[in-house]
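It is worth pausing here to work through a concrete case rather than discussing structure prediction in the abstract. The textbook approach is simple: state the sequence, then state the predicted structure, then interpret. We follow exactly that order.
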Amino acid sequence: MKRTCTILLFFLFCLCEASFGYGVVTTRKLMLENKVRQLDEQINTTKDEASKKSLVIQRDALRKELDKIIAAEEKETAKSTSDFSELDDFMAPIKMSASLKEKYNADKVSYQTKDDYSWYEITVGEKMGACGSDGKEIIAPKYSMVTGEVAGNWLCFECTDPTYTKKCIYRADGKVILPCDEYEYVSISGPYIIIEKKSPETKTKTCSVRDTDGKTIISPGKYDFIGYHKKGNYFSVQKFVNHVAKCGVCDISGKEIIPCLFYWAGYSSKYKRIMVAEDSENVMTYQEYLTSREGNGLASSSRSSSAKPSKNTLKNDEQIVKNYINQGNSSAALGYLKEVLKSNYPSDADTQFGYATLIQDIIVGLGKEGLGAVASMNLAASMSNTFNTNEANTLQVQLLALAASKGHEGAKLMLQLKSAMAGNGNINYNNNNVPINNSNNSGSSVTQSRCSLCGGKGWIAGSKTPTYGNMGTYWCDECRREVPQSHSHDRCPSCGGKGYTTGIR
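Step two, the predicted structure:
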């Protein structure tokens, strides 16, 4: 109140001072106007040309001074209007606060501003609500706490119920982004809402993310911790694996771009990019990490086209696949292994059998997810899982056949079990430990078939990125036709460039 009175007194002083100056200027203006009028009359009545010329010079000089005074007056008028406009802007929140206090019989009305947004917090007893800058109610006074935050292009309100257990998020237009429920933690971070909630079944904490439209970006149950980083525009995520925190990164669509395998993963202010670390000292880019493990790496992009999976890579791949399975995403686990194995299968029988065993875990996971889809009547998901399971079985049989042909007893046994489950009887082997048909032709044998995708060539025609401005063509002897400059021959993804595929019959 004291501040308001001080400001009003200041404006009154300015007005008085301006009025005094205005009186002096007005007197001078009237005098000049009269003098100019008299000179005009003299000029009209004077016959002597020399005298008339002298009078015109005097009149023009006085008119110039008069114009300056008029311009100064207009400027002062505009300034006074602006001062009153500023006063109106200052008084508007005061008037609105008084109006809202009377309307709600409120104990307190607090005017709040942040960025380009403004609102009023209404306190009635021990309960709070919020109104917009126009006085329109957004949230009725029914919560123990209402906190306004700017999220993306919206003003949002985090509200806590009187029990201090349930929380919700309102948008300034009244839309409920997060329904009122018991949450451990709710935070408006950038354009996203980060939520932590304990599972009523397992009593474990789970995290999720929504945007300001209420759309789920990251579903609950995937990660134990999620944080949004504005500088890098990404989500840092964390999972506990055997009670050890493992960090990764998701993009703003919720897609995991760096798996939860690291001691630390996040935005480095020093390097101005997302980095990873296997320990407290060795910080590197994710691509550097993959490159350092070429042939032993964690993604197909890190493998050279000629490198074959080994016992070392199997260990790393097991970790990645099981992470996917634990996340309830066995399809992603299968897709990952398909990429790993599409160019070259491992060369030794033990590793071949190890990958076949790992695929069994994927098959079990796909089965569980398929049953869940059926239970929820999501038939499309169920059909997709069935297709994936068939792919996994085919891939597994090919690996087992290779391992069995080298005498791997475990592979032979698993093949026999799979054959028996399919109703094909037992599998016998020749002197070279290669599976052969049994006496009733119901067994299996290793076969090599011409690749149906490339027709036995080992390559398929593709297209590389063309050079800008290079729109020419040339004759391809292999394809026997005219082709664009971007034409290329790519290793066949089905047979890995061998021209044939290995399997059993």
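Step three, interpretation. The mean pLDDT is 76. The first strand starts at residue 108 and ends at 114.
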